[in-house]
Amino acid sequence: MFEVDIAKRHIASNKKGTAFTVLTVAIAVGVIIMSLSISSGSLRQIVQNTVEKNPHILVMPKEGEDYIYLYRNLNQSLSQYPGVMASSPRMVGQGAARYRDQVEGIEFIGADPVSEDRLMQISESVVAGDFSELKFKRKAAFLGVTLAENLGVRPGNDIYLSLRNKTVKLKVAGLIEKGTVKDRTLVYITLDVAQDLAGQGDVVSEVGVKLKDYRDAPDMAEEIRALTAYRVESWQDFNREIARFLGTQSRINILFYGLIFLVSGFVVANTTIMIVRRRTKEIGMLMAMGATRYSILKIFLLENLMLSPAAGLLGIAVGVAFGKAIESYPLDMGSGEMGITRIVLDLRPEFAIYALFFALLLNILAGIYPAYLASGLDPVEAIGSE
């Protein structure tokens, strides 16, 4: 095919134009790769910290009641429900923790350590101690790491937990780091101690449920609500802003990528148009020698098409390099709650495929109009042009 040979010759003879086109597409691809990786990493962090580290569904007392009384039967039914991975009856309350002269507001969770570990994967968050010890040590507690720091307490120390007019003395058996704001308020105790502290007998305030797929939570919550008459909320209900963010993030990304596509396409198209104008006489001569308008169209499209792999691969390298640089840069959140954190990249193999496809599509679409202009030139006028 003579069109391929001419396209190759054009690329080799126009190094500046070729380099500019490749660089333009590479920058666009790099921005998309970096954006995809950062967006995916952020979403993964949000899901892990907010969704996976909390119950997907909370079953709470019926209307007019403050506690769940037949919680053992309810828990057994929930644990056997299709799609449920784990469930744990819990007594949750807010009180105060005191160590020497330090007092901090806390949120305590009383639960069976085995059930709670299945629900929340607590063992993965433990930085000191063995969470299963709560099953054998009734007067023990696990504290969030930030809470322990604020109190100045270490494992083995005794603390006092107070709720209204009741106080219990507990030994710190270990520390938990969930990586969320709860690290500064969380206290895990055994279910019976929590029940004694609340003074309500053999009841719980909620049953936490974890699903095999957290995205099924709204439908599952509706089913459980209809079957049991208990109040039921999915994680989307008590994290509405995060659920909304997860739902809209993909649409925002599409708009962002579309804008990059338009801007980059305009730059590439403008560069190709300038190349066509410089080659007007050559185009006229090719037509005079028998080249058809379709052949002229194909030549300019092939030029852009041949540049796509190089632009895509360079863009991937640029995106990964800049993404890694951003990932290594510490961010001070300034809240005092999360401390220093970092942007986490989620580099997936499919992102490279998307990038190469983007480069190919961008070069083709951006080259259609300039190629059409070239194929529409009048041979006589083209040969006589300066």
The number of E-state strands comes to: 12
Low-confidence stretches: 332-340
User: How much helix is in the residues?
Assistant: 55-70%
Order of helices and strands: HHEHEEHHEEHEEEHEHEHHHHEEHH
Molecular shape: elongated
User: What integer is the average pLDDT?
Assistant: 82
Largest sheet strand order: 2-3-8-5-7-6
Note the main attributes of this structure.
386 residues, alpha+beta, six-stranded mixed beta barrel, 2 domains, two-stranded antiparallel ribbon, 14 helices, 12 strands
List the helices and strands and how they pair.
Blueprint: H1 2-13, H2 15-52, E1 57-60, H3 71-79, E2 84-99, E3 102-111, H4 113-120, H5 122-125, E4 126-128, E5 140-144, H6 145-151, E6 158-163, E7 166-176, E8 186-189, H7 191-198, E9 206-211, H8 217-228, E10 231-234, H9 235-238, H10 240-278, H11 280-288, H12 293-327, E11 330-332, E12 340-342, H13 349-375, H14 379-384
Parallel strand pairs: 3-8, 5-7
Antiparallel strand pairs: 1-9, 1-10, 2-3, 2-6, 2-9, 4-7, 5-8, 6-7, 11-12
Helix pairs in contact: 1-12, 2-10, 2-12, 2-13, 10-13, 12-13
